[in-house]
Each structure stands twice: as C-alpha cells, then as structure tokens.
From TrEMBL:
One of its GO terms (molecular function) is metal ion binding. The lineage of its organism: Bacteria, Pseudomonadati, Pseudomonadota, Alphaproteobacteria, Rhodobacterales. PANTHER family: ELECTRON TRANSPORT PROTIN SCO1/SENC FAMILY MEMBER, LINALOOL DEHYDRATASE_ISOMERASE DOMAIN-CONTAINING PROTEIN. InterPro entries: SCO1/SenC (IPR003782), Thioredoxin-like_sf (IPR036249). Cu cation binds at residues 81, 85, 169. It comes from the Bacteria. The keyword Metal-binding applies. It comes from Pseudoponticoccus marisrubri. This is Protein senC.
Length: 206
C-alpha cells in the first residue's frame, strides 16, 4: 500500500524494557478471545491499559472514553521520529484500511511521548498526514507519563541538541476495545493484513 511502500524500511529504536514481558503461550480457558490472540501477557492483559487524560489536535482535554469509541490501534511515538514511527503508524493506517475493505471500522490513535515539541497542532498535522481517521494526542509531561505508565510503555529523551534530540521508545501497537480495554498487541514485523485478521477476530468475538 502506498503509505507503507513510500516509507523506507526502518530499524527498531529500542525493545520494550521493564515492567512488561510478553510470552508466547497458548490460549487459556475462560477467555472468549483466546482464539484471536497470538500470545499472552505475563500477569494477564488487565496489567496493560486503563484511563488516561490527554489533549487532542484541537487543544481539547479528552479522556480514554472520548477517544476509544470503537476498536482502536494505539501507538506511542513522536512526530520528529526519523524512521520507526512513520513506518509503524503508516502500517497501522493501512491495517485500518484493510479492515474497512472487509466491512469493519477501527480507529488509529497516535499518542506522543515528546510533549516538549509535540503540540496539539503538531500531532494533528501528523495524524492528518497518515490517515483521515487517525486521532493525534499529546499533553503535559505528567499526562503523557501517566498514559505511558498505564500501557507499560517505555520512552527516554536522549541528550543532545535541544531542538533535534531523539526519543527512544517502545514500538508495540495496542488493540483497545471500548467495552474491554486492552486486549492484544502487535509487533513491528506484523503486516497490515495480519493485523486486520486478528482485529476482525476480536470484533467478531466481542
């Protein structure tokens, strides 16, 4: 697809560290989504996700209830990211388009981990460039940190030029359902079609 093909292949910035480790275990009893999962979260999926309060592209304060109104692909990154974020976010946008072609509606969500540079206008422009349904979110450093901690993500601002610094960050995409919260995650190597297959499975099972 054009968005993904237009962006050069990238290398991972950093693996997810501390707090969350993913195991590749089989389905467990009593889980109606078991057939949809590719893996399991150590400690259970309820260890990831939860309420957040952030700021949207219009400068409005919003909560997770305002944002997660349908199946959503949530990604933590930053607009100045030179390689990984554009590739991953474009892949997520492509997955949303594949789902739409199959009759399913989903929303891509981009949460900045660089509140110093990522203003509401910046995340809005980035989201609009990637997909017309994408929601871009930022916030105060405290709001961003709280959202990141809720999803057990990692980010760390590198030392260097105060205007052109990089931010190391984890690169998982999270599938979040309105009534369920976090239900699954996707690694960087998964294709839009593979993501769409699993998202559709969760939608059908919910």
């Amino acid at each position: 697809m054009l968005r993904t093909a237009a962006i050069a292949a990238s290398v991972a910035v950093v693996a997810l560290v501390g707090g969350v480790w993913y195991a590749t275990t089989g389905p467990s009893g009593g889980d109606r989504f078991a057939q949809c999962r590719a893996g399991a979260v150590a400690g259970g999926s309820d260890q990831i996700g939860g309420p957040f309060t952030l700021v949207n592209a219009a400068g409005e304060t919003v909560t997770d209830a305002d944002v997660i109104t349908e199946p959503s692909l949530v990604y933590f990154g930053y607009t100045f990211c030179p390689d990984v974020c554009p590739f991953d976010v474009a892949r997520n946008a492509d997955a949303v388009d594949v789902l739409a072609e199959r009759g399913y509606s989903a929303t891509p969500v981009f949460i900045s981990v660089d509140p110093e540079r990522d203003t509401p206008e910046a995340v809005g422009q980035f989201a609009d460039l990637m997909h017309d349904k994408m929601i871009g979110l930022t916030g105060s450093p405290e709001q961003v940190k709280a959202a990141s901690q809720a999803y057990r993500t990692y980010y760390n601002k590198q030392d260097g030029d105060p205007d052109y610094y990089l931010v190391d960050h984890s690169t998982f995409t999270y599938l979040v359902l309105p009534e369920e919260g976090f239900v699954d995650y996707f690694r960087r190597e998964e294709t839009p079609e593979q993501m769409a297959d699993r998202v559709a499975c969760f939608i059908e099972a919910s």
